[in-house]
Amino acid sequence: MKREAPAAAPAQVQAQAQAQAQAQAQAQAQAQAQAQAQVQAQAQVRAAAHAPAAAPQGQSRRALLLAVALLLASSALLLLGASVGSTGFTSLLQQGQDAVARQIVWDIRLPRTLGAWLAGALLGLAGAVAQGLFRNPLADPYLLGSASGAALGGALALAVFGVVPAGGVPWLARLGVQLGINGMAFVGAAAAVLLTLALARGVQHTLRLLLAGVIVGVVLGAARDLVELASPDILQAMQAFTLGSTSFVGWLACALMAAAWGLCLLLAAALARALDGLTLGEATAASLGLPLAPMRAGLVAVLALATGTAVAQTGLIAFVGLAAPHLVRTLVRTTSARHIALASLMGAVLLLAADILARWVLAPQELPVGVLTAALGGSYLLWRMHRRSASGGLL
């Protein structure tokens, strides 16, 4: 019995060595599997981020057809918007002979129509950026308190600069006041977004983000009310602001919105790689070396600039930024860059059609376009929820 003990020790050592070898082999196999999975994920993200043509050919064709259809609809609505008013088509037909008719068409109807199109384009673009950035189909341009911040900035600008009358003021002074209002609205929207992100500690927790947005919106709304109480002369202008209206949009406002829309569209297209990468997960996108922090900052700036400019010129118009990306997503699935462009065109068509309907439904009186978009947009979302409830989806 004493001679068997030395033989048992080498057997135990051999068994332990075999177990260690098996554990090392399993660890190597797991490492190889993780490396292969990471390589495959990187290939998928590169295909999504660097190769927009990787979308199915049929979807690319549908996206092109949708863009053409939206451009044609925009052209038709622009012509119709120049014809809708108290005098109907008469002013449009007689503008060559009648100076009053020419003034009605070129100084009132055309800037208002074009302004509604540009404001809708800005809101649709901002809605697509918000939904892609926060990976939440319920996100809209006003989710992070940007609307309340822009409204507070506009109220402060009106209190400081005063309400500019329609005439009797040099164009350079009007330009300065208009730029001041837009600048204050942009600063307010950007500050509200940054404050919401700081309270939510990032964008990882959707519930915390929504609660932070609600809190920031309520607080900034109360601050705007205090500004209105301190400056009663801006109450009428702020009432039209909160209801949403395109009645006071002129050529100067159209130029400012066009410049902001072009800049936001270029920046969003350049930063769309981040949205494509985030569709596969934040960790996977970060493993590719994508600079997510500066890209997020750029997208937040795009969201703030688009929302602030639109709100400064037309007031608070609901549901356009939320419904436009949904409609595009229902019709076609494509890359983030194309989706943002299509959502911008869809928002422009929606707001312009709503503005024309608001001018026509109670003619010669006008219905605030924000009230109409809220009613139609709410009905559309309720219909979508009822349609998707059977399948277990939300929207």
UniProtKB/TrEMBL annotation:
<keyword id="KW-1133">Transmembrane helix</keyword>
<feature type="transmembrane region" description="Helical">
    <location>
        <begin position="207"/>
        <end position="227"/>
    </location>
</feature>
<feature type="transmembrane region" description="Helical">
    <location>
        <begin position="340"/>
        <end position="361"/>
    </location>
</feature>
<feature type="transmembrane region" description="Helical">
    <location>
        <begin position="114"/>
        <end position="134"/>
    </location>
</feature>
<keyword id="KW-0812">Transmembrane</keyword>
<comment type="similarity">
    <text>Belongs to the binding-protein-dependent transport system permease family. FecCD subfamily.</text>
</comment>
<feature type="transmembrane region" description="Helical">
    <location>
        <begin position="63"/>
        <end position="84"/>
    </location>
</feature>
<dbReference type="GO" id="GO:0033214">
    <property type="term" value="P:siderophore-iron import into cell"/>
</dbReference>
<feature type="transmembrane region" description="Helical">
    <location>
        <begin position="179"/>
        <end position="200"/>
    </location>
</feature>
<feature type="transmembrane region" description="Helical">
    <location>
        <begin position="141"/>
        <end position="167"/>
    </location>
</feature>
<feature type="transmembrane region" description="Helical">
    <location>
        <begin position="247"/>
        <end position="271"/>
    </location>
</feature>
<keyword id="KW-0813">Transport</keyword>
<dbReference type="GO" id="GO:0022857">
    <property type="term" value="F:transmembrane transporter activity"/>
</dbReference>
<dbReference type="GO" id="GO:0005886">
    <property type="term" value="C:plasma membrane"/>
</dbReference>
<keyword id="KW-0472">Membrane</keyword>
<protein>
    <submittedName>
        <fullName>Iron complex transport system permease protein</fullName>
    </submittedName>
</protein>
<feature type="transmembrane region" description="Helical">
    <location>
        <begin position="367"/>
        <end position="383"/>
    </location>
</feature>
<dbReference type="InterPro" id="IPR037294">
    <property type="entry name" value="ABC_BtuC-like"/>
</dbReference>
<dbReference type="InterPro" id="IPR000522">
    <property type="entry name" value="ABC_transptr_permease_BtuC"/>
</dbReference>
<keyword id="KW-1003">Cell membrane</keyword>
<dbReference type="Pfam" id="PF01032">
    <property type="entry name" value="FecCD"/>
</dbReference>
